[in-house]
Write a structure and sequence with these properties.
Blueprint lengths: L26 H38 L1
Length: 65
């Protein structure tokens, strides 16, 4: 018996590499990668929207003057 409880150890986030061989991944690993990528897409879209609204506000400010 180990003094370290491996079940409670934080899992390291696996990084998905575009184009990597997927044949060795399990169904659960593939699903997890899909979830991670969907979350990252949502994060990127939110940042894009924030930058777009900032740009629009700046353009509107300079058009007034």
């Amino acid at each position: 018996m180990s003094i370290f409880d491996d079940d409670n150890a934080p899992r390291s986030m696996r990084v998905h590499e575009i184009g990597q061989d997927l044949s060795l991944l399990s169904v659960d690993e593939l699903k997890e990668r899909i979830n991670q990528l969907k979350n990252e897409i949502a994060r990127l879209e939110a940042e894009l929207a924030a930058k777009g609204s900032t740009r629009n506000a700046a353009e509107a400010l300079f058009r007034r003057g």
